[in-house]
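Table S2 (continued). Query chain:
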Amino acid sequence: MKDAEKSSGLGGAGLPCDASSVVDGTGFAGSRGKPAPTPYPVGRWVALVVLFGFALYTGWTMLNAQQSLIAFGLELMSRPDTAQVVIDLYLMAGLGCIWMVTDHRARGGSWMGVLPYLLLTAVFVSVGPLLYIVVRGFSRRYAA
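Corresponding output:
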């Protein structure tokens, strides 16, 4: 490996960190054992507002729905055009679940600690990852 690649860290990827640092989901380098600083603390507030608004809207629509959630899902899957949207949504939900488990384990937790978020994701898709981001963002802020 060339000297320039060694000094830039991570095999010359040009990232501003050395081999003793890690890059978290924000793209900023932090030391091992310490969370990287959150560059935009407003992001956790945005996630909280989106979560709150979407949860209220979801609750309102479920209260006013003329059919159960399962019947609605089966109706969506009965047509190819709406089934494609549902499949696409759950592919992204699966990627979100993988990210949550990986992130939680990288922070020293077990997959059981992320299980409530995975269950929420299975039913309400975006609510699980949004809640995970909000809880992680606020707990990391106060732990630092």
